[in-house]
Amino acid sequence: MKTLNKELQSSITPRKALDLLKEGNNRFINNLKAHRDLLEQVNDTRDGQWPFATILSCIDSRTSAELIFDQGLGDIFSVRIAGNIVNTDILGSMEFACKVAGSKLIVVLGHTKCGAIKGACDHVEMGNLTELLSKIQPAVYQEKTTLENRNASNSTFVENVAEINVKRNVKNIIERSFVLEQLIESGQIGIVGAIHNIDTGQVNFYDDVTFINDEENKNFSLKNLNY
Ligand SMILES: [Zn+2]
């Protein structure tokens, strides 16, 4: 697997970036890891980095973006925080990754059986965690299909909240970052939400929160974002 350089990065479109991640996850779940000499990649990246994607995922030890998408050094920016939530510092990191460092796709990646989502479902309060979980609470309230057992013991409820949380955070990024919104509108970058199933390793991308302004997407409009 070749280490990315400036030329390679600029040849990758947002849709190609999405395909590269899908292919990488496919390799991961089929145990067909691409051959990489990581030490050689240390040398290849010593003078700079040209990652093609920026992935916001959870701190969960089972969800390392580099591993589940089978990526090497210099391939992706990895932003990790419990419950894959968004705050100002994370938006700033993403603006750097896309506007300054040229990354082509933002992925908001949730996962099944997420402890942070479960904590929010149970309205857990503890130290600084209380404030973090409060950022997931809107997704808990937005889940309207579960009428009974609206708590962490109900896995259907938990997974519904995880999905809503991903989609809300795609919307959050677009609404709260003028820099990223402009890049998405102009087709320079794309944004997509996805969920990682920790039972299988498989990542499923949500079509209804895939915003890539290119020829393949005739109906592109950020107004289609209803979360
Ligand atoms: Zn988690």
UniProtKB/TrEMBL annotation:
It comes from Flavobacterium indicum (strain DSM 17447 / CIP 109464 / GPTSA100-9). GO terms for molecular function: carbonate dehydratase activity; zinc ion binding. The keyword Oxidoreductase does not apply. Binds 1 zinc ion per subunit. It is an enzyme of class 4 (lyase). Its cofactor is Zn(2+). InterPro entries: Carbonic_anhydrase, Carbonic_anhydrase_sf. CDD domains: beta_CA_cladeC (cd03378). Signal peptide: none annotated. Zn(2+) binds at residues 58, 60, 111, 114. It comes from the Bacteria. Belongs to the beta-class carbonic anhydrase family. Its EC number is 4.2.1.1. The keyword Zinc applies. Gene3D superfamilies: Carbonic anhydrase. Keywords: Lyase, Metal-binding, Zinc. This is Prokaryotic-type carbonic anhydrase.
